[in-house]
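Consider the following assembly input.
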Amino acid sequence: MSIRPAVSTSSATPTREGAGVHLHRAFGFHEPQAYDPFLLFDDFRNDNPEAYAGGFPWHPHRGIETITYVLNGSVEHNDSLGNSGTLGAGDVQWMTAGSGIMHQEMPNGNTRGQMHGFQLWANLPGSLKMTAPRYQDVEAKEIPEIIDDDGTSVRVITGEFWGQRGPVDGIAADPLYLDISIPRGCRKVLKVDTYRNTFAYIFGGAGKFADASSPQGVLLEKEVMGQEVNIRDLSGNRTLVNFGTGDEVVVQAGPDGMRFLLIAGSPIKEPVAWHGPIVMNTREELHQAFADLRNDQFIKTQDH
Ligand code: MN
């Protein structure tokens, strides 16, 4: 057993995307290798309909997968394959853009005006960048939720955890995507295979992770007994934690409990050529993608 130290923490920063949607970006564009195989993580939680009303009208993607997880409100989507549908609270859509897709994502608030959710981008390896586009729409009720003895709950969206397997499959990044809620004061040791890169995104309550200067979980026990130790004290909402190597994450919830996503994936370790919604390996492939867009050659697959 070796604990993954929290090697960096940061706060998601305000930005605008689509047709003027206000959101918070935890990472994306600046360090394409830092979270390999993941490229971008957006937090689009908003309580003001004016801040998201414009939505994300028709736009292309190539070379990546986008993963949308809705907590409140809903997202209507349409695409160039003829798919359309609505993602509601607790639902997940895993979209493999592959060789190319045009789609739009239009948010609608719940009765209180809330539109809450997250979008993650996972890279595709060069061998799969031009694969056929694919959607996996997963309803909330299909996602297993495990409740542990201390009241900790874990929704397993993809990957295997505590003997449960999430419904999303066949993803190149071989991801683990968990939504974890830990009651106040509880300490958890969470297994994450050594080969995966791992980050957490805290969006409720607060807590502590073992950090690089005191990676031994036993220190967390001492801290509970009132002794001073070095551990990451995270003030919670919109906090990104990137972990170093190891095979488990050690976390302790604060007095209000803690809710976070724990996301891990197998690094692709390839060059990244990225412009806007298109991510390839080389500049030539990127130029080809934009030439295809101009020449109406972007969509390679027609199901309808
Ligand atoms: Mn999109």
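The CA atoms of residues 154 and 282 lie 38 Å apart. Ask yourself how this observation constrains the way the partners meet.
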